Amino acid sequence: MSSSSQTSLQFPLSLPSTELLVTVSYPHPGLWIIELHNGEDSRLTKRMIDDAIRPALDVVEEHWNRNRGFSPTTRSTSVPNGDGGEGALIIIGKRKQDKFFSNGFEYESVKGNLAFFTETANPLFARLLSFPIPTIAAINGHCFAAGMMLALSCDYRIMTDGSKRRAWMCMNEIHFGAPWPLSFTAILNTKVSDPSIRRRIALEGHRFTPSEALMAGLVDRLASCGGKEVELGTESVLQEAVKLAEEVSVLSKQGVWGSIKTFLYRDCLETVRLDARTHSLLSPTARL
Prior knowledge:
Blueprint: H1 3-7, E1 13-15, E2 22-28, E3 31-36, H2 46-67, E4 70-71, E5 76-77, E6 88-92, E7 100-102, H3 107-110, H4 114-129, E8 135-139, E9 142-144, H5 146-153, E10 156-160, E11 169-170, H6 173-176, H7 182-191, H8 195-202, H9 210-215, E12 221-223, H10 233-248, H11 257-264, H12 266-272
Parallel strand pairs: 3-6, 6-8, 7-9, 8-10, 9-11, 10-12
Antiparallel strand pairs: 1-2, 2-3, 4-5
Helix pairs in contact: 2-4, 5-7, 7-12
């Protein structure tokens, strides 16, 4: 971060400054919200990740460290007993709609570009897998492909119950002939323990309804989005995510949440951080 950003953090913050792709808000102490804005379906483009989401994560961590009086130089905190260290981050799709959380990568711009995974996508996943405060994906609509990987990289997942508008979680690459990067398999194997569920996700491209996702352990809770008083299910999803954030934010108080995750997900992180250009899959037409 620049020196100017270190002296003054103003919320809500729009990133990048020249094009609104992400908004970072700080509604109350210890809670940050990153809202995705790339069109209606929040496609994860190189610009979206490199110039918006990853810088937004830097802002959140910087602000959390300030709150707890952490000094990068001395690696110590000036605030006693972990005061100021409570915190949680919510990532949500565009709040003015309830059709999409994220529809994944823009496939045509990513296809065959292995540098994209090494330099852009995988560092994002690794960042979330080791982030120092609890992260919650507020899945306010369809959650497809890399959007699902983004959600799985978070610590918790809240999903709409689908009563207002249908929503699915799905890794649909099998249906349009896109091989998985190794990072996807590492994240799936780490976050989903049941082999039969992994098979349905990766090899069948099953579209999990909210109730199926809950039963399969892909999400932790469903947000009730029914009722005439609810215009958009998104706000109900966000409210449920805020409720969970209030429950778990204390877990980051002592500053070890991220370091424990780094060891907990060590094998996964080592794989995610590999150079994707050295372990690409053969094309479907290649012969062994």
